[in-house]
Amino acid sequence: MAAIRSYAATRVDGIAADFSGSAGAGAVVAKLPTVDVLVNNVGIFEPKPFAEIPDADWYRLFEINVMSGVRLSRHYLAGMLERNWGRILFISSESGVQIPAEMVHYGRKWCTTE
């Protein structure tokens, strides 16, 4: 983070958070109540055959890979609209268009956010 800050003309910050539930988004919002640019880049996967992925895994992956970005975007969008400026970015992966057979659950995430 120090190297990035040395090149920045403005404040740059990073936060480690657990996005397996809403508390992670809450921790980020508590530390940074407003932002001008939000980059959603969280994504986890476990290589498994499609038929072996239980519902619990699907829910956990969706919670982290999709809902974390939804929660943060929902919070920060209001301030961006008030200031009439802001950007919300979702970083994608080629897995959204070329899904590896053992990572259907991961590739599906990118199809939902692109």
Radius of gyration computed on alpha carbons: 16 Å
Oligomeric state of this protein = single chain
Question: Largest beta sheet, briefly?
Answer: 2 strands, parallel
- The CATH topology name reads Rossmann fold
Could you report the average pLDDT, rounded to the nearest whole number? Answer: 85
- Indicate the proportion of strand residues: 5-15%
Q: What coarse outline follows from CA principal-axis ratios? A: elongated
CATH superfamily: NAD(P)-binding Rossmann-like Domain
Classify the helix fraction into a percent range.
Answer: 40-55%
Helix vs. strand class? mainly alpha
Number of helices: 4
The strand line-up of the biggest sheet is 1-2
Top CATH class: Alpha Beta
Could you give the distance between the termini?
Answer: 28 Å
Following the backbone from N to C, one meets helices and strands in this order, namely HHEHEH
CATH architecture: 3-Layer(aba) Sandwich
- Give the count of structural domains: 1
Count all strands and give the number. 2
Low-pLDDT ranges: none
Tell me about this structure.
The protein is mostly helical and 114 residues long. Helix content is 48%, strand content 7%. It has one domain: NAD(P)-binding Rossmann-like Domain (Rossmann fold, 3-Layer(aba) Sandwich). Strands 1-2 form a two-stranded parallel ribbon. α2 packs parallel to α3 and α3 runs parallel beside α4. It is elongated and about 50 Å long. The mean pLDDT is 85.
